[in-house]
Design goal:
The structure is a single chain. With 370 residues, this protein is of the alpha+beta class. It is built from 10 helices and 15 strands. Strand 10 and strand 11 form a beta hairpin.
């Protein structure tokens, strides 16, 4: 009869996954006292098994390292010797990498059989994207274990050729009525062609481990939001001896306080006073390289666009785009009695019909309503 699957130590002790060490200790003492064989003389075998399970659960959860290993890898950590002793929690000595590989691969966002490609977003300021820069990009990846060189075997030991597949990593089988011969990865060695009797302590017999990687990425001038680049061989290693996957960098450009990009041009809005709009003059405007002055022609209307040539985004083939400036009219909200009097006199002096936009609007109303 097959052994029952090992139970969750949290469930056995009746505590939550965020339980404190004191809560775990109190739960263990209560259950150990209740199920101790000496207190259950009529149920020697059952009480002994329950007490053994409770004790094993406490051995895991009372040790910070064993608890952390269980939280990350479940019972697979015990199968890899991660809970210490001869075979860990469930007494298994054989190396079974299914759960442990699945947990590790899942943490990096890929499945077994995948190439190990990675995708990483790189955030740029508006200015960095416009003029280019060098960014230091740090990210986590799966690499071949340096202590066992990817074999998964402890120092001083060697992997054993898998008896199930003879070292091929694949099992042949016939399929269908016509007896077609097909192959599938060997489940005994997880397609590696070898098994490990004494796992490497660093990688727990997987052969790969998590590591932080840092790259200096050169960002060319004029890079747009959403642009991508591929760094070959900078992704995950999915199996010892196999080349690492690639790293795709996706660039995201932060919004700017003043500017928006329109292809190679930059666009901004600048408020001007009524007197500057009517009489003309110079106004100070922001640019990508600091402040500049732009000439406002007399009679400039709200919504008009001014242009600063060569103040936009650098082009990859040389030159730069322009800066477009949309003019808005700044209307005073508080007027003195004298200012109000002067504006009323101006309005009388100008008259409604001499204002071109007003005249056009009135004419359209007459055409609409007769």
């Amino acid at each position: 009869m097959a052994d029952a699957a090992p139970r969750d130590p949290y469930e056995l002790l009746g505590v939550s996954r965020d339980a404190s060490p004191d809560e775990i200790k109190a739960a263990f003492r209560k259950l150990a006292s209740k199920h101790h064989p000496d207190r259950n003389p009529g149920d020697d075998d059952g009480a002994h098994d329950r007490f053994k399970q409770i004790n094993a659960a406490y051995q895991i959860l009372s040790d910070p390292q064993k608890r952390a290993a269980y939280d990350r890898f479940g019972h697979a950590a015990g199968q890899q010797g991660g809970f210490g002793g001869q075979g860990g929690f469930n007494g298994a000595v054989d190396v079974d990498l299914q759960d442990l590989l699945g947990s590790l691969f899942g943490a990096f966002g890929f499945q077994k059989g995948a190439r190990g490609d990675l995708r990483k977003e790189v955030v740029l300021t508006f200015h960095e994207a416009a003029f280019g820069t060098t960014k230091k990009v740090a990210y986590d990846r799966a690499v071949s274990c340096g202590d066992c060189h990817g074999t998964g075997a402890a120092a001083g030991t060697k992997p054993d050729t898998c008896e199930a597949c003879g070292g091929r990593g694949k099992i042949r089988f016939t399929q269908g009525l016509l007896g077609f011969v097909a192959e599938r990865p060997c489940s005994h060695c997880n397609g590696r062609g070898f098994t490990v009797s004494k796992p490497c302590e660093t990688c727990r017999g997987v052969g790969i481990m998590a590591a932080e990687n840092t790259l200096d990425v050169t960002v060319p001038p004029g890079l747009e939001d959403g642009a991508t680049t591929l760094v070959q061989g900078a992704g995950n290693v999915t199996r010892a001896g196999r080349a690492a996957g690639d790293l795709e960098l996706v660039f995201r450009v932060e919004e700017h306080t003043f500017f928006k990009r329109q292809k190679d041009d930059v666009f901004c809005t600048v408020p001007i006073t009524f007197t500057v709009a009517a009489l003309g003059g110079e106004v100070e405007v922001p640019t990508l390289e600091g402040k500049a002055k732009v000439r406002v022609p007399a009679g400039t209307q709200p919504g008009s666009q001014l242009r600063l040539r060569g103040k936009g985004i650098p082009r990859r083939n040389g030159g730069r785009g322009d800066q477009k400036i949309e003019v808005t009219l700044e209307v005073p909200t508080e007027l003195t009695a004298r200012q109000r009097e002067l504006l009323e006199e101006l309005a009388k002096e100008l008259g409604e019909e001499v204002l071109p936009q007003r005249r056009t609007f009135v004419e359209k109303l007459k055409d609409l309503f007769g």
